[in-house]
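User: Structure tokens for this complex, please. No commentary.
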Amino acid sequence: MEKKVVMQIIKRIGKCVRKILFYSPFDKEQIAGLDENVKETNKNLFQNVNWCNEGGHEEMKISSPMEIWKYLPGTNCGKCGEKTCLAFASLLIEREKNLKECPPLFEPKYAEKGKKLAELLAPEVREVEIGIGDKARKIGGEDVMYRHERTFFNRTALVYDVWDTMKEEELRARVREITDWQKFYVGEFLKVDAIAVRSVSGEAKTFADCVKLAAEETDFPLVLCSFNAKVIEEGLKEVSDRKPLIYAADKDTWKEFLGFAKKYKVPVALFSPDLDMLNSLAVTFSSAGVEGIVLDPGTYPAGKGLKETFSRFVRIRRAGIIEGNKGLAYPLMSVPMSAWMDNDGDKAENALESSYWEAIIADLFIIKYADIMILHSIEPHSLIPERTLAANIYTDPRRPVSVEPGLREVGNPTEKSPLFVTTNFALTYYTVESDISSNKIDSYLMVVDSEGIGVESAVAGGQLNAENFKDALESFRVEDKVKHKTLVIPGLAARLSGETEDVTGWTVLVGPRDSGRIPGWMEKNWPPEGVA
Amino acid sequence: MEKEITLADIAKILDKYDIVELEDVKIKGDIELELAEGGVALPPSIAQALQSIISAGAGVGTGVQKAQIPTTPAEELNLELIRTEFKVAKTEWKGQIEEVTIGATSADGGTREGTVTIGGEKALPFYNFDYQMPHPPVISVDCFDMPIKLAKAVRGHYEDVMEDVGEWAKKNVREFGADMVTIHLISTDPTIKDTSAREAAKTVEEVLQAVKVPIVIGGSGNPDKDPEVLEAAAEAAEGERCLIASANLNMDYERIAKAALEHGHVILSWTQLDINAQKTLNRYLFKMGVPREDIVIDPTTATLGYGLDYAFTNIERMRISALKGATDLAFPISCGVTNAWGAREAWMKNSPIAEDSYWGPAVNRGPLYEIITGLTLGVAGGDMFMMMHPKAAAAVKRITQMLFGAAGAEDEGKKVKMEDWVTWSGKAV
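Assistant:
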């Protein structure tokens, strides 16, 4: 049998032990310096409490592309695909480009600058990737405590569970259901992110079989869950090339997990509700060269425990972002699934209640700093709000609220097609547009300037009124395209119908209160007399 | 056949040539690692690395044979935990949110059995580790002065009382545990029933008779009619310290504010997702002489999926700015959470989008939309939630009490060991 052992280091150790050959994922410096470095690292990591200004507002490390530009070659070579280094700099800030896309930066003469730039651009919270290929998910990488300070970047990854005591068919079906789930929202389909495989049996082989089946059925990233190191390793062997997250090292098992993380090069979750211990584990792993670290400070499902859980999440993130405690600046994991145990969710009559409480905990920690969470209910009433909330909180608040007012064509409208009216609030517009187009209704959609406010609020607040309907009809020259002079206004703007008829001279029809009901409304109301 | 050598052999050879290090060397053959007798303690780094060889070999089946050292389980290795202490500073703010009391008992010239106090925060909501939140958020359950169209999931709870506003208000308190009741005088809207201000005032009296909790008086939202209606209502509720909802920039807010001032009520200052408009309106109210402790603000509630992100950030920004010292914004915040029922996901039977996965029963979705909308805004800074579905109201109450640390709520949830979720065998879903 052939064996390969790469001899990286041979080192003398005293007199008695001659020489030891070993293979190690450590590099030389780390080995040589580990012990000496521990104290120093520790000091650097934890006495680095800095600039916590009043109000907890974080000072941005970088505020303008100019600051970045200073460190770029400045040759405008175009290799990154941008015309100028300055353009590239602004995309770097927005994380739409990364440093690797600037090859000259890796030439020796720019090495110093490149290094500095990498430091400046590194997010406050480490970014960790789980899974491979298209479905790989980055978590963490956050820079701010409040989304309005900039934006949150990597949406909380929502992970739904399967377990190793499921029957094969049941398991396959559940994995597929999680993988295939989707919901349309503002121009795209929302999906969930990953699958957690739990070891309920406690048997390594059973777990490994389950992991294998799950992996066959989905290309989603996997989270392997057991506190038993042997069980984890058996599962890990099946899918180590898929870069799963292993859960979880705790105060008793961390050595084994540290070994797995290094050997299989997979990210690892560390669990401890005791924050001194959690901090210690994180520093130990990081000092040993593990980069993919996720922290689980524990999610108590109710009462005082939940209150303290909330406190732990906020304080850990504060330590990482505001106080620069690099030892805890890692993605956080929450487990809203714990709600099922507290509510005796295994009894069918408690399932709905459990799923509600799970969603409530998910809500709290989607907002307050969980970068990944494990959930159990895959009922639509859970998936829809959980995923929608994550989308909302992680939407870039600097993105415009409104779309351009104007007359849009949906499908292939003719002069006899209906003319719908909506506001220029982006969300309203996209919703109405998709409802009309996905139901293949050829029509015109007149987008009125409501100052970016939705229909109901704009009617109440006066930003949507008969006068701006009139302005819109005139400025978009709607009469040139629509000959029937009939306007369909949103049901929520019904109270404007009379005045609009008076002011515009057009016939006003009141549409449904929700644009999802336009197809049904069309059957009853279109074409009106005189239009056919 | 490959020759079998031991580590000792290799070491000897290396010693001979005084080689300290080999790089990029492949060794073929079984390797036996032999450590010296006498139990030399290895530095942790070396021991750990050694362990890696052994497990790497075992793991990938390369046949690195069992070493002659005693098998060294990881826990026997000297790798040590780097003990560190977790520390993080408290955040202290210079601002404080105004404390506002709604309702008046007989001692203060009213007839309420109790009052409700909100605000007073010196930290973000539920950040008790910075500063204990002085009052938990409260829930006001809506009723209307006429039967209205409601989502099916909500309707079932109110069908029996819709024709009788007094009964409706009572039910909100008795069955749904409302801290307050909001009476919406929507029938006064000229495009609905155009009920007179006098009639509306009678309705308010009826509600005050029916319940002993503090009440919120809401108009129809018609900017032309509301001033007249709310003025009459304020007069009818003289001394009860109701919350009058609301003053808004697009109407004669002065008339409403004046009526509130004159008859001893609190005024709700409502703007639409606009921090500057909120400051402006509040300043106008100060100018009119409205005392700070008589103001609650409503920065507008947009629903989950329909602008909740704007509402969340708008409230969070206002609250942070208030804590930083912007006194124009340092008021308790009221949220119209019932708006959640406007989301199609809360009530529509099936998705209008063909490619969507199955939506499941609407009756399960609706309350959760209301809960998430309320709780999310509570985490941003909401002090008071106007709600409708009893289950949603109860859930928001329960979670906010827990986070606040209310007596009783603290003891819940102790029966589980939380890490047991990993082996939890339930399969209800």
